[in-house]
Specification:
The protein is built from one helix and 70 strands. By secondary structure, the chain is an all-beta fold.
Length: about 900
């Protein structure tokens, strides 16, 4: 068993060998981290804090504080945020029993003891410790506004009376968490006392009304149990809100009378009820357990334990803990002292007691040096701590009592390969059915060993699957298997009626390694169905589309819904997903993808349908490519200042389309300020020579006057017929910087429409090595001048740029191309403003918004009926 450390204190837990209160546990679990914290005295005056991060398998010291005159520790409270340990301790000094509060910051994992102690109260003790304050406990609640409300009940006795008093402490949510005594958080009664001195032993035990984990609470009502003379009491403090605190009754209801005088009255809220234990007055070898209703108005039931097996006519010390899953409670008790610690369980499911069992073999402990954590929550075990030894230094150790929790109901897995898509979904009767579930067990390492799979078809007889012969049985059958899934072939899961059968409902139960059985899961509905697959008629596989608008067409005999997706196969990005579209009448057979795709887009379109029962079809897929001809680039053919009209007259011309060029249906006019930047490259027009131009893969590059877009001459490129992707480029690498944007413009005229023309910006590093290219492709129309333009930013490490243009594939010798106005220049990324829309070719428009003295340039946007569009060149 793990050893924590040794202690030289004469009774480390917690009262210095004077009196012991095992119900006041000094081990708690932090709610945020799950770490266990243990506090006890390692010397007479030193309190040390230990932490375990492995469920009490090992412990590490986290710091300590020293207090002269210390004679008792309360249990401690970790607030529900896990921020602090809150503790009360009793000190004998100046002939007084003094009560002090301390807060220890554990948010960082390592305790901070910088917060000083606060005196709560003092009572004259005549110089003898525990002559006034007998014991104390504490509960700390963190309010929603970050402040703290803290209850500190203390048990006292004097020669004339005994009882408990409830103090309050508040902590502000400021930089230093200012702390002050505030009894006003308890309204209206603080003191509960009776005449007469009960110096034989007084304890007060507390808990909060939580959901079973010891912390989480909708309303932090606080419960207290205590005994004065021979009567046991139960007190409920009702929460009134964090701005008010708790409301206290004027008197404490009694739960039992004629009890034996006892120092131990353990009590716990188990998640549903307040459970209080005390020694049976007529047979002190047994324990009575009282359960209180939520209103604290009556005992719901009293249960009496079996006789303790190791006693001298009475039980000397006792403690109570509970199973957080089942609310079974466990009594711990020492009979003969020193002697072994025993425990016994009350099983709520059967309403019976178990058998007293030794907790740790023959190990003997005294009645004063042991206790147990409040519940199994968080570690799934009962955590016991105790000291052993016959002289100083005593050994502090811990050990765990494992609990085998029954599995909870399994949960179904759907929507994975071979499983139904969802609960109640249709499933293909020609396919194998995988029934997959999650074995749920509070013991996280406790695996499934068996399962029972139940099936009911409609209102038919309930059946169970038997793996030994792969048949369905009419009696419950458990199959030995650690695998939480079973795959049934179509012949095994489909009923006699096939797709015409009513829905199947499947349930599953599991057993763990201890043979404990879970409840059955919720039902998983499966609808037998025959799949109906559509025929995708458009686009056809491998289609080359001359429009950016893609239309899917199909036929399907039984359809209640459909789904269309389009994916960019170059990047893998889904550019459109219609989602499932309901079609209860089954009339839809076409879908226009509401995304305008760019020229050169390569993608795939998928279609999937559902039949009338909701069964999904196979996925139909068609690959396609967008390769369309843009409308003719519109031009600004006239720019004439009109000072008398206060503007500029702009004339727009849209040349007629040729061949496959689509007709223009819309044009808009744009304007921006001209920068006056000239072309960076030295010879973009080829009017005099071919200086600054080179080529790769062409047999001839020559000036030609046969065709020219501007002036008289252009550059004629003649392929050699064997080289792939030939191109021409500027000889000069023009300087750039990383991130600088550049524009490549130009006009090309292809003799044929056989090969796509590619415009490029080539990027070079400081060693004049090509590092990458930015490209844009253009579809040629034979014998027509096409405007081309692109803008791109220089990548990392780029120090130079070239203008380049060529053809894709391997062009034949007759696939000649003319180039003109091949301009490279820094990009003007101002898109301009639209001055006119829906304009007509050949019409002059007055731009009356133009400002005198500012140089402008204009361009025209054109859109075609097939969804393609083009911007013409900027013209000044």
């Amino acid at each position: 068993m793990p050893t924590v450390t040794t202690s030289t204190a004469d009774g480390a837990l917690p009262q210095g060998g004077l009196v012991s209160f095992p119900p006041m546990t000094l081990m708690e679990r932090a709610p945020d981290t799950g770490h266990l914290w243990l506090i006890f005295r390692t010397t007479t005056t030193t309190v040390t804090i230990y932490r375990s991060i492995d469920n009490a398998a090992s412990w590490q010291a986290q710091g300590s504080f020293t207090r002269a005159g210390l004679y008792d520790l309360s249990d401690f409270s970790i607030d529900q945020a896990g921020d602090h340990i809150h503790i009360v301790y009793l000190v004998n000094e100046s002939s007084q029993d003094r009560m002090f509060y301390k807060r220890i910051d554990i948010r960082s994992g390592t305790p901070s003891f910088s917060t000083g102690e606060m005196q709560i109260t003092a009572g004259n003790n005549g110089g003898t410790a525990r002559s006034y304050w007998y014991s104390a406990c504490i509960y700390a609640y963190k309010n929603p506004d970050g402040t703290f409300a803290i209850l500190i009940p203390g048990a006292f006795h004097q020669s004339s009376y005994s009882g408990i008093y409830i103090y309050g402490v508040s902590i502000k949510n400021d930089a230093v968490f200012s702390t002050y005594k505030n009894d006003g958080i308890v309204r209206s009664t603080h003191q509960y006392r009776l005449s007469g001195d009960d110096s034989g032993g007084l304890t007060v035990c507390r808990d909060v009304e939580h959901n079973g984990d010891g912390y989480t609470t909708k309303t932090p009502n606080v419960w207290l149990a205590f005994q004065i003379h021979s009567t046991s009491y139960c007190l409920k403090l009702t929460w009134q809100g964090y701005k008010t605190g708790w409301s206290s009754p004027t008197s404490a209801p009694s739960i039992a009378t004629s009890r034996l005088s006892s120092r131990d009255l353990p009590a716990r809220w188990d998640g549903k009820r307040f459970v209080i234990m005390s020694t049976n007055p007529t047979d002190p070898t047994k324990m009575d357990v009282f359960e209180r209703d939520a209103g604290n108005t009556k005992n719901v039931v009293k249960r009496t334990s079996p006789t303790h097996p190791n006693n001298t006519g009475t039980i000397n010390a006792n403690m109570l803990s509970y199973n957080h899953v089942t609310q079974d409670f466990r009594l711990f008790a020492v009979g003969v002292s020193p002697g072994p610690l025993y425990y016994v369980d009350f099983i709520r499911a059967s309403g019976t007691w178990g058998t007293w069992t030794q907790a740790e073999g023959a190990t003997s402990i005294t009645t004063s040096e042991w206790s147990v954590r409040r519940s199994t929550y968080g570690t799934n075990q009962y955590d016991v701590y105790r000291t052993t030894g016959t002289a100083s230094p005593w050994t502090m150790g811990t050990y765990a009592l494992a609990v085998n929790f029954a599995p909870t109901a399994p949960t179904w897995v759907t929507g994975t390969a071979g499983t139904p898509p969802t609960n109640g979904a249709a499933f293909d009767v020609s396919a194998s059915l995988t029934l997959d579930w999650v074995h749920n067990d509070p013991n996280l390492t406790d695996a499934q060993t068996q399962y029972a799979l139940q099936r009911q078809i409609g209102a038919g007889t309930v059946q169970w699957w038997r793996t030994s012969d792969s048949t369905w049985q009419t009696v419950e059958t458990f199959n030995t298997s650690a695998t939480s899934a079973v795959t049934l072939s179509a012949a095994q899961w489909v009923g006699a009626g096939g797709a015409g059968d009513p829905a199947h409902v499947y349930k599953v139960a599991t057993k763990d390694t201890g043979g404990l059985t879970s409840p059955y899961s919720s039902g998983l509905g499966v609808v037998p169905s025959t799949r109906t697959d559509p025929t995708l008629t458009a686009p056809t596989g491998g289609a080359i589309l001359n429009t950016g608008l893609v239309v899917a067409n199909w036929t399907c005999a039984d359809q209640s819904a459909y789904r269309v997706t389009v994916t960019n196969t170059a990047t893998g990005v889904v550019v459109h997903d219609s989602g499932w579209q309901a079609d209860p009448a089954g009339q839809t057979s076409g879908y226009v993808v509401p995304v305008l795709l760019a020229d050169g887009f390569t993608g795939s379109l998928t279609l999937q349908t559902k039949n009338g029962e909701g069964l999904s079809s196979v996925v139909r897929t068609a690959a396609f490519t967008i390769d369309f001809v843009e409308p003719v680039a519109p031009l600004v053919t006239g720019l004439v200042p009109a000072p008398n009209s206060g503007g500029i007259n702009v004339t727009v011309t849209q040349p007629a389309p040729t061949g496959t060029q689509p007709a223009t249906v819309r044009m808009d006019l744009y304007r921006r300020k001209a920068t006056g930047v000239l072309p960076t490259n030295s010879n973009p027009y080829f009017e005099t020579n071919l200086n600054d131009w080179g080529q790769t893969g062409y047999s001839v590059t020559a000036r030609s006057s046969t065709f020219a877009h501007t002036g008289t001459w252009s550059l004629l490129l003649t392929p050699n017929g064997v080289t792939a992707s030939p191109y021409t480029q500027t000889s000069t690498i023009y300087p750039t910087s990383t991130g600088a944007a550049w524009t490549a413009n130009g006009w090309f005229r292809s003799t044929t429409a056989n090969k796509t023309v590619r415009l490029k910006l080539q990027w070079y590093n400081a060693s004049s090595a090509l590092i990458s290219e930015s490209v844009r492709d253009f579809t040629p129309v034979a014998g027509v001048w096409i405007w081309m333009s692109m803008t791109a930013g220089a990548p990392d490490l780029a120090t130079g740029v070239r203008w380049a243009c060529g053809q894709t594939g391997t062009p034949a010798a007759g696939d000649t191309v003319y180039l003109d106005e091949a301009v490279l220049m820094p990009a003007n990324q101002d898109d301009g403003i639209r001055t006119n829309f829906d304009i007509a070719s050949g019409v002059t428009y007055l731009d009356w918004r133009a400002v005198t003295g500012v140089e402008y340039e204009y361009r025209v946007y054109a859109e075609a009926a097939n969804g393609t569009r083009v911007y013409g060149p900027w013209q000044a």
